[in-house]
């Protein structure tokens, strides 16, 4: 049976570590989340409000806050309340930190980045 | 009289000016214009604490990204990433509003790190950012006072940096913090014979004697080095000192 071009591309793009594929499809599934994960990888002990994290990332808080919330839901980030202020930080779970490290290190490979971008764009459709 | 225990900075020349080092569990302000070396002094205090005196440390930054500290420290041959991996250092990026609430709460991030690491030293870079919490000077002083007391409660000896708004000369400051801290070190640019040099003065040290003279210092490839005092000059802190009359120098300075 002939394979369509789209199927072939999909299979090619799925050709990566299944753990990372799941990480991209279900956890870091937007470019803002990717930026945030990279920021917290480079500055791993950051703990701050959504407003300040948005400032560090050079983005608008209205765009960043929902993404932070989703990263909390997926276990990459932690959220704690200090009085009435929500403070976000990278998960202290060793396995999750190792997964973040693995993702960022994999991003050093251009082919991996192309595949990750493909999946994020497909997920945004 | 029993000799007081000291928290050594390990910075050549500075401990001698401080009578042996900072007093334990004190808050120590380092104020200077941009580029004078406040952060370098703070990083060296932390680095030496870890590698020379077995005292883990924390850097609390309100402005610079931690990755900037890793890079700056590497320039002096200090591997901050390795120290973090070994659990001897944490560089925490946050804001005054969060850190103030955090350290006042039970089981906060800073308290947990202090317990986990056995941290004894902290650098807060910079206290200038506290100014964005309130415009009311009375409230600001109360906030700073509470924050400093919380650091002491955790058993930490702190170096607190503060920016001076002017490059040369004496800076006008609404100086609530200067009253609250235990020691106060000033870093200044000084223009002498068409060249910029750097001066350091220990303005105040509560509960201890300290050097009263104004000394030159440099940031070398190995970090902060305090040198000899300025000879034959007066008005150093004005930024534009005058040469003392030769007869005065001969009679009183270098007889």
CATH top level assignment of chain A: Mainly Alpha
Rg from Cα of chain A: 16 Å
Strand portion of chain A, in percent? 5-15%
Strand order of the largest sheet of chain A: 1-3-2
Shape of chain A: elongated
Contiguous low-pLDDT stretches of chain B (5 residues minimum) are: none
What's the order of the H and E elements of chain B? HEHEHHEHHEHEHEEEEEEH
Describe, in plain words, how this protein is organized in 3D:
The complex is a heterodimer of chains A (125) and B (255). Chain A is built from seven helices and three strands. In chain A, helix 4 crosses helix 5. Chain A has 125 residues and is mostly helical. In chain A, strands 1-3-2 form a three-stranded antiparallel β-sheet. Chain A has one domain: Winged helix-like DNA-binding domain superfamily/Winged helix DNA-binding domain (Arc Repressor Mutant, subunit A, Orthogonal Bundle), CATH 1.10.10.10. The model of chain A has no long low-confidence stretch (mean pLDDT 91). With 255 residues, chain B is an alpha/beta fold. Chain B has one domain: P-loop containing nucleotide triphosphate hydrolases (Rossmann fold, 3-Layer(aba) Sandwich), CATH 3.40.50.300. In chain B, a hairpin with a 2-residue loop joins strand 6 and strand 7.
SSE layout and pairings?
The complex is a heterodimer of chains A (125) and B (255).
Chain A: H1 5-13, H2 18-26, H3 31-42, E1 47-48, H4 50-57, H5 61-73, E2 77-82, E3 85-90, H6 94-106, H7 110-124
Antiparallel strand pairs in A: 1-3, 2-3
Chain B: H1 14-17, E1 27-32, H2 38-51, E2 57-61, H3 66-75, H4 80-85, E3 89-93, H5 96-104, H6 109-117, E4 121-125, H7 137-153, E5 157-163, H8 176-180, E6 183-192, E7 195-205, E8 215-220, E9 223-229, E10 233-234, E11 242-243, H9 246-253
Q: What's this model, at a glance?
A:
The complex is a heterodimer of chains A (125) and B (255). Chain A has 125 residues and is mainly alpha-helical. Chain A is built from 7 helices and 3 strands, in the order αααβααββαα.
